[in-house]
Amino acid sequence: MSAAPQLIGSSGDSLREAFGKSLVDLAERYPDFVVLDGDVAGGTGTHHFRKHYPRRFYQCGIAEQNMVSLAAGMATVDLPVFVTTFAVFSLRAVEQVRLSVAYARRNVKIVASHPGLDVGPDGASAQCLEDLAMYRAIPGMTVISPADPLEVAAATEAMLKYDGPVYMRSGRSPAQRIFEHKPNFTIGKAQVLREGSDVTLVACGKMVAQSLEAAAHLAEKGISAEVVNAATLKPFDHATLETSVTKTGAVVSAEDHNIFGGLGGAVAESLALHRPAPLEMVGVRDTFGESGEPDELNHKYGLTPAAVAAAAKRVIARKA
Amino acid sequence: MDAPQTKLASADLERRALQARRLSLAMIYHAKSGHPGGSLSAVDLLTVLYFQELQLTDAAFSDWNRPRFVLSKGHACPAHYAVAALAGLLPMSELGGLRKINRALQGHPHVGATPFVEASTGSLGQGFSIALGMALGFHHRGVDLPVFAMLGDGELQEGQVWETAMFAAHYRLNRFCAVIDYNKLQSDARNSEIMGLEPLGDKWRSFGWAVQEIDGHDLEAIQAAFGAFHQEKDKPTVIIAHTIKGKGVGYMEDIPAWHGSVKLTDDNLLDALAACGVTREQGAAYLSGAVFEEANP
After folding, report:
1. Is A64 a catalytic residue?
2. d(C-alpha A188, C-alpha B9), whole Å
3. Could you say which of A89, A204, A246, B173 has the lowest number of CB atoms within 10 Å?
4. What pTM, to 2 d.p., does this model score?
5. Nearest C-alpha of chain A: how many angstroms from B110?
């Protein structure tokens, strides 16, 4: 483990901006990839790429089904393709992801902004609490939800080096920074961000920062929490979780997603199969969201450091 | 790329189309399920595509640089497989394995299982978009290669088809050709009863496509239509091929029940083969599967 990353605290770029800028940074070193967008380039961060590489950017209009299958076809001409839209609109083409992309194992990367409740005032129709579950269920899909702008940059390059279908979540709000320097990113590898012995907090996306904050609060109460960044939900890093839970004996999962089928689901499966231990899930409890500022929604729906810390105390009390 | 140099005599194409009809029927018989109606309506179009337009000699594609064909109406794959075998892209012995476990020929086309198949299809509308992506990819690479997609008529009810149509015209992809196997029937009944398509030519024209309407069983008309496609400089082309579902087998023609998925009895097969010039004595080799042991032509 490198020097233990802590919550830097300062607010950085949103993950979508980080993604858009990393496409520009990677464009010269990876001269083949192209970017498709469905009339939301300003929202997905790909306007940066469009500006610098207009000939490698294809506007697909508001037609996600065509965009996804089209990407599968372009990939057969040896062009790695990024498909970008809002998470919820990508769901409109889940069957296209399944058949055109995943079944044919095409080198298509779907990168979706506006995940979870993070969308805020646009309300439930634009929020997306189901994507991680749906993409995780498709055979052969890699599913990634990074936590920090520098991690997004590292994950974007890792995706380019990987020949196969990937779904990645970015994010809309300014992200809390976790890493001082660009981290190593290996698809399928979780990372212990903070070591602890009483409970494992395993999180993805924006809930990683919340979990680090929760761990700091818990430390003040004499509870030692280990924080694991499970940026890859699939393939899931069973070994890292198993090592952690062997030490701590209790787990909290935390995600900006329905508690069913996403990270909580992946953690529950992993624990049940490899190392049974009590689990508490922090996430949206099988309901739709509503309009409101992200912070207000986080409080109402329990996506806060306090909620993670409370879940940690509950799960510790459940240890045999 | 101009129109391919080698132009086959229509008698030659006719002979191959007839062989493909016989093989498709035998394949569906041995598979104990499959879609005969839409396979038979597509055979003539597929024959011209493979023997005149694509002229692929090897299915072990080593790079991306080849003309493309996507069967978007994936359920007609028995005809596609049969034509590909006649073109030397698939061992004839594989045809007997259609829809069987651990074999190459899936019930709907799949890239991962069958070498010459360019896209996994079977959910209508997707193959058309995938083919569009190939055409855009060639355009992006500055390579002049044609891309063909075959769609069913019922398939045109999918919204994705019109997303694709809009995109291809917007980007002026003149090397992209849609072929509609317009047999007027879909799974449950006639198109006109399920969800009317007319005026079909006007729909495509209004989407910015060059439109040709032909008899999809007239081999010379099919050849000519592809010839006109190669001359088009500004627009994608759609060939609306008027066909007959079950074409070539009288008792199946224009009857929705033969859409599929259909189990053919021994007599069904022998009667169908008789319509394709196979005597009942010769039919024994089709019933036994011996016909699949023949060498590729």
Report:
1. yes
2. 57
3. A246
4. 0.96
5. 7
